[in-house]
């Protein structure tokens, strides 16, 4: 009795060829893709990481944590935001009131939402499962903008939060209450 693979050798060849093509395509995409940190530099030209002291009590608008959870990765020169662990599908609220200026997909970050706040501040929410807002939509503290997911390069469900002042990346913990 011949082996199943030998009997259906054409299917085995096609299956193997498909796997090979898929693997090579992924290697090519990974080689060409930017890292999340490089994406920041492309998204925000000349983005400099700064750790200036900005305090929530002196802020030009009310601010809040977008989600409750443990910080799994802190802000650093190599990581331009905070990673906050949360349950897959948990609701995300904006850092503060503003207007949605971007909804899309970025290499490494997955699904993202960017909110423009007052006086040159903006915030980005990444790795979302889904978005609940539209571009140019005003948002308040109670607006559900999206949900926790695993899109992009992740090791589990979490929110990647980045904050900017005049297009410069700032540590979100210096803004949050």
Written account of the structure:
The protein has 177 residues and is an alpha+beta fold. It has two domains: 1-32; 36-174, Distorted Sandwich (Glucose Permease (Domain IIA)). The chain contains three helices and eleven strands, in the order H-H-H-E-E-E-E-E-E-E-E-E-E-E. Strands 1, 2, 3, 4, 5, 6, 7, 8, 9, 10 and 11 form an eleven-stranded mixed sheet that branches. Strand 5 and strand 6 form a beta hairpin. The protein is globular, with a radius of gyration of 20 Å. The relative contact order is 0.20. Mean pLDDT is 78; it is low at 4-54.
Keywords:
single chain, 177 residues, alpha+beta, Glucose Permease (Domain IIA), 20% helix
CATH class of the largest domain, named Mainly Beta
Low-confidence stretches: 4-54
Average pLDDT reading: 78
What is the number of domains? Answer: 2
| The named CATH superfamily of the largest domain | Glucose Permease (Domain IIA)
What is the gyration radius calculated from CA atoms? Answer: 20 Å
* Helix and strand composition category: alpha+beta
Task: Kindly report how far apart the N and C termini lie.
Answer: 72 Å
Helix percent reads 10-25%
Beta content comes to 25-35%
């Amino acid at each position: 009795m011949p082996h199943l693979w030998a009997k259906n050798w054409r299917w085995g060849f096609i299956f193997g060829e498909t796997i090979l093509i898929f693997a090579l395509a992924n290697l090519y995409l990974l080689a060409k893709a930017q890292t999340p940190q490089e994406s920041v530099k492309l998204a925000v030209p000349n983005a400099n990481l700064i750790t200036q002291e900005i305090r929530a009590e002196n802020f030009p608008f009310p601010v809040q944590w977008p989600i409750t959870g443990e910080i799994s990765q802190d802000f650093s020169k190599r990581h331009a935001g905070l990673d906050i662990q949360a349950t897959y599908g948990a609701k995300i609220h904006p850092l503060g009131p503003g207007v949605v200026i971007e909804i899309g997909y970025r290499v490494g970050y997955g699904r993202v939402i960017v909110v423009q706040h007052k006086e040159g501040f903006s915030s980005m929410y990444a790795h979302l499962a889904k978005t609940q807002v539209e571009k140019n939509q005003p948002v308040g503290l109670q607006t559900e903008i999206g949900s926790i997911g695993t899109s992009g390069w992740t090791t589990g469900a979490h929110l990647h939060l980045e904050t900017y002042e005049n297009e410069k990346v700032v540590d979100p913990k210096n803004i949050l209450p």
